[in-house]
Amino acid sequence: MRLISVRVLSSRVPQGPEPMYNAPRGVQLLEHDQEFRLRFGILPRIQLAYETWGELNQDRSNAILLHTGLSASSHAKSHDRDAAPGWWEKFIGPGLALDTSKFFVVCVNSLGGCFGSTGPSSTDPLSGNRYGPNFPMVTVEDIVRSQFLVLDALGIEKIHASVGSSMGGMMSCVAAALFPERVDRCVSISACGRSYPFSIAIRYTQRQVLMADPGWMGGFYYDRTFPYFGMRRAREIGTISYRSGPEWELRFGRKRIDSVAAPSLGPDFLIESYLDHQGESFSKKFDPNSMLYLSKAMDMHDLGEGCKSYEEGVARIKCPTLVMGVQSDVLFPSWQQREIARILRDHGTTCTYYEVDALYGHDTFLIDVPTIGSAVKGHLETVTV
């Protein structure tokens, strides 16, 4: 394995009509030059992009592994090599939830993604062509195991905590279950121990809409065309599940874009305009094949896989755990987080459960800094016996 530091990395070639998916400035790279075995295949070698904040202490015991959601890069927080705000900007830093005056935070772009880590848009070293749909299926467990290669390369044998929300919350639980001897604390926010039918159905519909776009071309669109329409519509479907009815009622109500114009079959209400904006802004920022692969990985997520029961699989988590749910979350309803907490407590694991009363639905973990941040900070900084 080789560690490489780079100033600017682009995993895209400049030609071709598809958007550029650039890794954040100043990412670091781990090149794993050996075969990496997945549950459903083998990658000849992999590259992982990651970023860090804070300082690793002398005995390397203060590391926090921060897991991303489906479409996030490793850039969770701005730093001196990249001043752009990160996706968890207000949660990371001195005195904040992930206190960089105390902890060394590591965030890795997911295997299967498109921001520097090996994914469908990467070049297959055996063929010299982009993987596209020839990329093997990845699971949440595969992604977590790849992240621990980064920890190994940094000389970190045990992490202070595993932290994540949404898909990242899935990964956080998997990390604690797979490596109980290497994870001292676990934080899982707005996630589940296994995917249930509603969220699977939402993601399936997104994938079907995306793949129905003629521009997808069976996944071989690189340097040729781009499934722009499919990406827009898939994101709009996702946005409906990320945010909540209560927020939209207060924010948009039944307001129309033009209250005096005759209605049309196009965007007429403000909520429709909002969905259009969300689809448009996202459609050019993420590789469609990565969206397909990572959303499928979420569908397949099940801590009980390979165990006698789901409960047995969850009970592999032995470290003190913080589980958080949001009452208005329709994608991962709070009963799914309560289920994790109940199983852990029934099996003697210390588990703190908070249920947040917020309007923002699933995306509360990105928005409600005071509530989410204070709970995470308290769990990470509590002294355990």
Topology:
Layout: E1 2-5, E2 28-32, E3 36-38, E4 41-43, E5 46-53, E6 63-67, E7 104-108, H1 140-153, E8 161-165, H2 167-178, E9 186-189, H3 197-211, H4 228-242, H5 245-251, H6 270-283, H7 288-300, H8 310-314, E10 321-326, H9 334-346, E11 351-356, H10 364-367, H11 369-381
Parallel strand pairs: 6-7, 6-8, 8-9, 9-10, 10-11
Antiparallel strand pairs: 1-2, 2-5, 3-4, 5-7
Please tag this protein with its features.
385 residues; alpha/beta; Rossmann fold; Rna Polymerase Sigma Factor, Chain: A; 2 domains; 9-stranded mixed beta sheet; two-stranded antiparallel ribbon; 11 helices; 32% helix; globular
Descriptive report:
- The protein has 385 residues and is α/β, with parallel strands linked by helices.
- 32% of the residues lie in helices and 14% in strands.
- The chain is built from eleven helices and eleven strands.
- It has helices spanning 140-153, 167-178, 197-211, 228-242, 245-251, 270-283, 288-300, 310-314, 334-346, 364-367, 369-381; strands spanning 2-5, 28-32, 36-38, 41-43, 46-53, 63-67, 104-108, 161-165, 186-189, 321-326, 351-356.
- The strands form two sheets. Strands 1-2-5-7-6-8-9-10-11 form a nine-stranded mixed beta sheet, sandwiched between helices. Strands 3-4 form a two-stranded antiparallel sheet.
- β8 (161-165), α2 (167-178) and β9 (186-189) form a beta-alpha-beta unit.
- It is globular and about 65 Å long.
